[in-house]
Amino acid sequence: MRISVAAALACVGVVSVSLAAESTAAVLRHNLHIPRQPLDVALKDLAQQTGLQIVRFSDAVKGDALVGPLNGNYSAEQALKELLAPTGLTYRPLNDRAYIVVTAQELTQKSGAVTSTQDNLSLAEGVAAATQALRLAQAEQRGAISAQSTASTPAGAAASSNEVAALEEIIVTAQKIEERLRDIPMSITAITGRDLQALGATQFVDFANTVPSLNFTSSGVGQTQVNLRGITSGYNVSPTVGIYVDDVPYGSSTAFVASAQLALDVGLFDMSRVEILRGPQGTLYGASTMGGLVKYVTNAPDTTAYGGSVRANVSSTEDGGVGYDASSAVNIPLADDKAALRMSGFYMHNGGYIDNLTLHDKDVDQAELYGGRVDFLFAPTDRLSVRVTAFAQDIDRDGSIAADFNRTTGVAIDGELDQRRQMPETFEQSFRLASATVKYSFDFATFTSISSYQTVRSDAITDFSALYVPAFGGPSVFSAIGLARNADVDKFTQEVRLSASGNVVDWLVGGFYTNEDSEQFQQLQPRDPSGTPSPVDLLTLTIPSKYEEYAAFGNLTFHLTDKLDVTGGVRYAHNEQQQSQVGSGRLVNPVPTRRASDSVPTYLANIRYRVTDNFMPYLRFATGYRPGGPNAEINDLEGRPLAAPTFDDDKLTSYEAGVKFGSADRRFNADVSLYHVDWDDMQITAIRGGLGLIANAAKAQSEGVELTLTALPVRELTLMGTFGYTNAELAADAPDLGGVKGESLPDTPEFTAALSAEYRFDVSNHEAFAGGTIRYVDDRNANFNQSVGMPQYELPDYTAVDLRTGLTVGSTRFQLFCKNVTNERGQLSAITGTSLAGGPANVSILQPRTYGLGVDVSF
């Protein structure tokens, strides 16, 4: 009798709580990102992202079926219905914070009238079992939440003794759908916003050396060339690595505005993560992604919660100036959680550390980087979302980070932080981007449209006095000669795609269009012996160009079994270009408009096998290309052309094998990849008749190994190691480059490595941390041994050590840091053009030892 009464009361209680839960669930909505994965893992992700407890009621509920993906705003019950639909399972609320997943038969049995003591006893036992399961789920969820803070926030709280720590599960959009990082069959690194915060990273060079196979050359913020897996000929004709801001490609795809050397150096504030995709991405991302892709993913507006942050840092560089930065972001929900506005702004001042002895200017490389973003999201229904973003960024730099070194001995001519320039080498850049992303979920697929318009204005002056003053008669004729360059790009892009996931097939089809109007202006600016501008016109050149591209692409993934997937993809692109050369002066002749067109297919094939949820080997085949185009018109002394009127596209084929695995308790992860790349018809800058032009003149290959290890050996300690081995070399003689078969490609170290550790502990009931990062870059060559235009210079290896410690008090985080603790004079890259006239090599130097303090406040 007592059992019957207790059971009846339990039934009433369950029904009452169920009604309350249903009411609450109908109101609360969550922005969910759950990739296609086994049901058990999807339910854990749902619990973590909603803060609810979700458990299986009995062993009859199998958890290995693949479900998802689920992306967008959902109530908990809507999300459960979507995830459980393919499995034939259902659910019932236990209380306002908990759901139980059951079979339909169990739901009928437990929802029916109480007819017997045995039935009542079964229900009571079931509720008790579920309650115990919920306790375990709560502990697991607390551990997951703690791990998320631990893994992504190095200053995160030390977990209490009853919490289970685990590494963070990172969701990325590398394949234009949201997936877990460990499910993607390619070599990829994702650096979260909290990781950037821990590194004290405010610009590209602050994190680049921690990523396997990622290399760069730089003259300072804004003037950077990015290379992946050794896919570079030195001074690249056009980009070999694509740069994206969210889903928008940055900059020009052509060879006419020095776009390869102007890779976007975005201020790393209010950033969700940076994704680095290694290997060609030609199928989904198109031209100029032969080596891979760097994708900056910004924080999206949140329609459910008000919040924001304020950040400030101040630092002092040894033998340099004082640097500081400040940023702020705020998120404001609007229209009953159907819209949100996110606004952010930042300002950064680099104090500089290079002195120009000729002009008596200290810290000439000091720079300012500032900008902001306005981001509006409107999601009136579960199916529709519209995101409109406006982003602006300006860079203003007084000089380069290059010091003068003897090209043959590698010894500094003055000091290791000194240069001699007759003219200030200023750099200014203005970047403006407006984009609109529309997503609509049909019953059968998701439609996405991305429209964007951007402008990039870059102005630079380079001192070529050491090269040109002797050539034009010496100091008695000109005291200095500088090259002023202006590169303007106006670019419109439109992409549409349709994608769907199923139990048997996932598919994605899309189209892409871009229209670019670009113009490069170059002028040699001589000064007479008194130092005033000379009226002599040595070279004044304007190069207007147009680029238009249409492309169609598609990917198809077959789930041959619950564990085995096979993917094939193709992209077909057609571009049309035109370029003119309008100029005057002793060194240039006008050239009429030249035109070229190109049609290029790219391919993708991969296979992945999920041995378990924590072990996945894969194979990947992919191709990439850069567009060809019209060439400059240059003749020899007898009037014969030195180059063909057009140059061809160059192509790349990549073969990759890898494995991603981790421990079942998610405290250890490892990614290993091996690759071989064949690069045909390399586009290069050839020096003929003393002038530069574009040619297809070489073949190359690159092969290597990449390894990333992450571990949480104890709750308080996080370890990470990244290692890269790259063997990139010419596969045939290249006379225009001054290289021979087997010679290493420039700016490509054979070995790179980075090790980081972070330990969390408690100080007077406050969360504290201490950590550090060691980065090693092997020696490498800046050019080719017999190069005519750029003589060889050997860059030595270097090791840099960074340390940090801090304390979190409530919502405020304090961090003390020291970058380059040993004050290493690491040589990042070198330009040797002036060495032709006996001038120095201009060697870019790693920032010296820098101390600083940072404060972050969240609200």
From TrEMBL:
Keywords of the record:
Cell outer membrane, Ion transport, Iron, Iron transport, Membrane, Receptor, Signal, TonB box, Transmembrane, Transmembrane beta strand, Transport
Membrane-spanning regions, if any? none
Note the SUPFAM superfamilies from the entry.
Answer: Porins
Against InterPro entries, the record matches this protein to: Beta-barrel_TonB, Beta-barrel_TonB_sf, Plug_dom, Secretin/TonB_short_N, TonB-dep_rcpt-like
Per its UniProt record, what Pfam families does this chain match?
Plug, STN, TonB_dep_Rec_b-barrel
Location in the cell reads:
Cell outer membrane
Question: Record's family?
Answer: Belongs to the TonB-dependent receptor family.
**Could you identify this protein by its name?**
TonB-dependent receptor domain-containing protein
Q: Organism, per UniProt?
A: Steroidobacter flavus
Which lineage is the organism of this entry classified under, starting from the top rank?
A: Bacteria, Pseudomonadati, Pseudomonadota, Gammaproteobacteria, Steroidobacterales
